[in-house]
Design goal:
This protein has about 375 residues and is mostly helical. The chain folds into two domains: about 1-40 and about 340-373, no CATH class; about 55-340, ABC transporter involved in vitamin B12 uptake, BtuC (Orthogonal Bundle). It contains 16 helices and two strands. Helix 4 runs parallel beside helix 7. The mean pLDDT is about 85.
Length: about 375
């Protein structure tokens, strides 16, 4: 008896939905079994997970993961596995801190707030693009796989940011904490509204959702813009076509007379630029300051966005659905910690179980396993 693995010639479209739903369901089931073996009540765990899917607190993560997922989709469709979103996300915050706290600090050198915000967004995108370009150059001209390079660059970015926060960027008004000063209010992108939060649970939930949407309006606009750009890129842009061809058949791309190396450089650079733009907007919208030892306090969006892209099966239409699932699961992990049902490992275990089952279901979608006697 032997097992033969054959690639499916035609993959039905509905397999995309089946594999995504199956990986989510089986992943949660595996996680519940593990919690049961650990002596934790699986019913309480399931209730907290279910609440996270309807919690207004997922709004911020949802918007960020849509933008990051779309950014990674561009490189993934080219079969360029940009695992460095985490580093590109945080390295892009350096120009934002430099511009808002040092060059155009309103205390001694005020400037037009819209102009400074635009500069922060632009320089953040450039910084993210340059950081991704490093791995692209290794892949294009030295034929070194981009996965280890981008992963190493994540930690280099952590150390660069930590050095700056501990040294030149160290805050003066931080009450003894190791972090930068807070971004001046004039450059922040939040809209604060206050609602009474009274009434039945549904009304309270809707009020909470309204507050969250208003507060993170900049991230909402960012998600819409990045999603629209990605749609245009693959639908109408010639480079988008070259990117997809590179992901399936680089030899055909070369036969067309298109430079494979230039396609690699541009796809990775655009992906990094969009991630850098997201990082700079996140700094102005949510983070407000950069803490020391950023790797210990990171939200992990660079890694979560990988799961978003994979769960979508590299289908742009599925990105919002995948982002919703992953943002809900991330908040479920936090809710489990608050409820005393475990520590930070609960969140990682939950996402890891879903990623494992996704890998298996994704394999079964793409390949057929036969038993021969």
């Amino acid at each position: 008896m032997r097992f033969v693995v054959l690639k499916r010639k035609i993959v039905p479209k509905y397999y995309t939905w089946i594999s995504t739903v199956a990986s989510l369901t089986l992943g949660i089931l595996v996680y519940l079994i593990i919690t049961l073996l650990a002596g934790i009540n699986p019913l309480e765990v399931l209730v907290n997970i279910a609440r996270s899917f309807i919690s207004p607190s997922i709004v911020k993560d949802f918007f960020v993961l849509i933008a990051m997922g779309c950014a990674l989709l561009i490189s993934f469709r080219a079969a360029l596995w940009n695992i460095g979103g985490e580093g590109q996300f945080y390295i892009a915050m350096i120009p934002g801190v430099l511009l808002t706290l040092f060059i155009f600090n309103p205390r001694y050198n005020p400037a037009s707030a819209p102009l400074v915000i635009l500069l922060v967004a632009l320089t953040g995108a450039i910084m993210g693009a340059l950081w991704a370009l490093i791995a692209a150059l290794f892949r294009a001209y030295l034929k070194i796989d981009e996965v280890p390079v981008t992963l190493i660059l994540n930690y280099i970015a952590y150390y660069i940011v930590n050095y700056l926060v501990f040294g030149p960027f160290k805050g003066r008004y931080v009450y003894g904490y190791l972090r930068t000063d807070e971004i001046p209010e004039i450059y922040r992108l939040n809209v604060r509204i206050y609602l009474p939060m009274r009434g039945d649970p549904l009304q309270v939930a809707l009020q909470g959702l309204t507050v969250q949407l208003a507060y993170y309006i900049a991230l909402l606009i960012l998600a819409v813009v990045v999603y629209a750009f990605t749609w245009w890129f693959f639908k109408y842009c010639r480079l988008g076509l070259y990117t997809k061809i590179h992901g399936s058949n680089p030899s055909y791309l070369q036969a067309m007379g298109v430079s494979v190396n230039h396609t690699i450089l541009l796809a990775m650079t655009i992906s990094g630029a969009l991630i850098g733009l997201t990082g700079s907007m996140y700094l102005l919208s949510e983070l407000g300051r950069i803490p020391y030892e950023i790797e210990r306090q990171t939200a992990g969006y660079g890694y979560l966005a990988i799961l978003v892209s994979w769960l979508s099966l590299l289908d742009l239409k599925m990105i919002p659905f995948s982002a919703y699932i992953v943002s809900a699961l991330r908040n479920a992990g936090i809710a489990l910690q608050v409820a005393g049902l475990g520590g930070v490992e609960q969140s990682l275990l939950l996402i890891g179980a879903i990623l494992l089952t996704y890998s298996i279901t994704r394999f079964l979608v793409e390949y057929e396993v036969r038993v021969e006697w």
